[in-house]
Structures are given as structure tokens and as C-alpha cells.
Amino acid sequence: MTTQTKIAVVTGSNRGLGYAISRKLAQIGIHVVLTSRNQTDGLAAKQQLSSEGLDINYHVLDVNSDNSVAEFTQWLQQTYGKLDILVNNAGINPTATPEESSLLTVRLETMQATFNTNVLAVLRISQALIPLMKLNNYGRIVNVSTEMASLYTMGSDYYPLAPSYRLSKVGINGLTILLARELQNENILVNAYSPGWMKTDMGGENAPFTAEEGAETAVYLATLPDGGAQGQFFAEMRKFGGPIQLQW
Prior knowledge:
The chain is 41% helix and 13% strand. With 248 residues, the protein is an alpha/beta fold. Helix 4 (108-134) packs parallel to helix 5 (163-182). The longest helix is centred in the middle third of the chain and has 27 residues, at 108-134.
């Protein structure tokens, strides 16, 4: 690894979409810090990717914990002295029971827990790590969202209601817009994207596409050139054969 090597952090990357994003970034020469709450799972994922000859490091990270984020940030500063790419992938979708699928019956505790992980944790880790991007006047932040959070289509789409998940992703879309606006005079590009329905623990085996396909747009946004898209919402590239912006 040289001083010119880009450093990327992918949250929740021991499996599924985060794992696929980490692999694809490493395959193009980016040094990836894989993270997870469970150290055993994270180290196993790191070992697998390293066995493929990829440049991967690992550190435990619980994005819901102030102490964990602070410790991780200090380690990142001491180890690399900078950060170039942040992919906010960690998230939850609590739709396991019928009452969680309706606004009339969803528990407020479920809604709050989902917002804590899908929105406030993204803000927490972004606040902690953006100063490391500012050191070199370079940064790319990719927030994983969903087409299900588009207000433009929400009233007529065919998706299940999934209120906790969908409203939390509306929150992440808003956070993306506001953060991009606040950083508009910095060389730190902030965008969101929908990876689509994938064969992951969250998406299930009936999903039509793989996590590797869902990772394509994340890699595109993580490697945008200077002056690239800022504060935009993108679809999964496999659907259109290229980067297409969605309506918020």
C-alpha cells in the first residue's frame, strides 16, 4: 500500500451487500477496512477476502455505539491518517411479523430502533469520519437507500408497506441531501443509491439478483471523479445498464 492508495470503510460488511462492495472495491486496488459488530464473523470475512489476494483490513465497529465509533475513528487516524471512501451499508429491516408491516400496528419501539440504525448511526459515523476526509480535501460517501423510499413513487408503487424500513430510508435520503449541501464547497461527494432486491439475508432467496450485482452502483459512486454527482439518488446499474438518477 502506497500513500496514494485510497482507503475505504464499509459498514456492516462481513456478509451480503457490504461484503460484495468490499470485494469489488478491493479488486480495483482500493484498500478496504471491513467492519462488523461481531468480531468472529468479521475476521472470517476478512480472511476469505485476503485469501483471494485482496488488500483487506478489519476492525470491529458498532455504528450504534458512541464509544465504538470513537475508538474506531481513533484507530483509523492512527493507522492511516486519512479516509477517502465511506460506504454506509449497515442497516436493518424489521418486517418479520405481520404487525410490523402496517403503520396502524407497528410498534414505536420497532420504528425507533430502525431509525437509530438506519439514520442516526449513519449521521454518527459520518460526523466522526468526515474530518479524516477533510485532511486531504477528498471524500466519497455512499449511503445505501432503496427505491421504496422515493416519495415520487411511494403512493403508487407495488412494494410492501414496510413502514419502519421505508420511513427510515426516507430519512437517509434527506440526510444525504442535507449533508451534500453542507459539503458542497468541499471535494467530498455524498450520494445515495438503491441496490435493488438481492439474494441476501435481508432480501431472501427469492430475490432476482445477487449482492455482487447490487454492489455495482456503490463502486461507481465511491470512485466518482472530482466534480462528479453530489446529493443525488441513483438506481441499481443493472436495471438500466448504467448510472441512472432516481426521483427523490
